[in-house]
Amino acid sequence: MSTFLQKNWFKLAVGLILLAMIASFGYKLWFVKGPEDHHLDPMKEAPAFHLQDLDGNPVNSQDLDGKVRLVYFFYSYCPDVCLPTSFLLSKVQDSLKEKGYLGSKAEIVSITIDPTRDTPQVLKEFGAKFHAEPGGWTFLRGDEAATQKLAEDYGIMVLKDQDGNFTHSNAVLIVDPKGTLRTYYDAGDPQLDPEYIVKDVITLAKGK
Q1: What is the pLDDT of residues 63-91, one digit of tens each?
Q2: Using one digit for the tens of pLDDT, what is the confidence trace for 110-152?
Q3: Which of 30, 33, 88, 143 minimizes the number of CB atoms within 10 Å of its CB?
Q4: Based on the number of CB atoms within 10 Å of its own CB, is 40 exposed (0-12), middle (13-18) or buried (19 or more)?
């Protein structure tokens, strides 16, 4: 094996798996448009989950039916993408609150893939950094293996390295009030506008 492959095998493996998952799940990223914009067409029923909030209360996906959900798989010790994406979600939150949709008609759901380190206290402190609104932005945690399986069911790649860190697809998913997955947003794209997401949330909240 060449020196390059020895040093970069994990990154290469991640890239190949991500490409395979993109092909398998048929991602409809936010920039895929045409003369007729079908990016919010139904994809599939969103996988059900049974997790806990930061006070240890059980939270099931059915509890959120009736609301538009923005779902993000992350971990607070993430060294790169999770912080800017959470900042993006904070802007979405502020706009939805201003427009009267946050909490009553829409909710942001951040699910940690690293529950061992992401204790309830750690996640409370993480949420406070982004001024997460109780009842409008919920942080959830559960068993690590089950959460990784859940992420994969949503079409999110998760890989854990030997140092205990994770590589994962950096995508935000939107689920309509009936529990149908509608699209993925490429949260790593610097041109992704929070108001683009807000517009989609409002569209789905109105039953379209």
Answers
A1: 999 999 999 999 999 999 999 999 999 99
A2: 999 999 999 999 999 999 999 999 999 999 999 999 999 999 9
A3: 33
A4: middle
Report the distance separating Cα 153 and Cα 173, nearest Å: 12
> What separation, in Å, do the N-terminal and C-terminal C-alpha atoms of the chain show?
54
3-state helix, strand, coil in the chain (%, to 5): 35, 20, 40
Q: What pTM, to 2 d.p., does this model score?
A: 0.84
| Whole-number Å distance between alpha carbons of 154 and 22 | 12
Q: Do residues 123 and 54 make contact, with C-beta atoms less than 8 angstroms apart?
A: yes
Domain boundaries along the sequence of the chain: 28-205
pLDDT at 71 (0 to 100):
98
Structure token digits, residue 134: 């109780």
Using the 8-state DSSP alphabet, how is residue 132 labeled? P
Tell me 62's DSSP state.
G
Query: If pLDDT is split at 50, 70 and 90, which confidence band does 23 have?
Result: very low
Question: CA 175: distance to chain centroid?
Answer: 11
* Contact call for residues 135 and 167 (beta carbons, < 8 A): no
**Is the separation of the CB atoms in 62 and 147 below 8 Å?**
no
CB 140 within 8 A of CB 111: yes
Contacts of 194 (CB under 8 A, 6+ apart): 88, 91, 92, 95
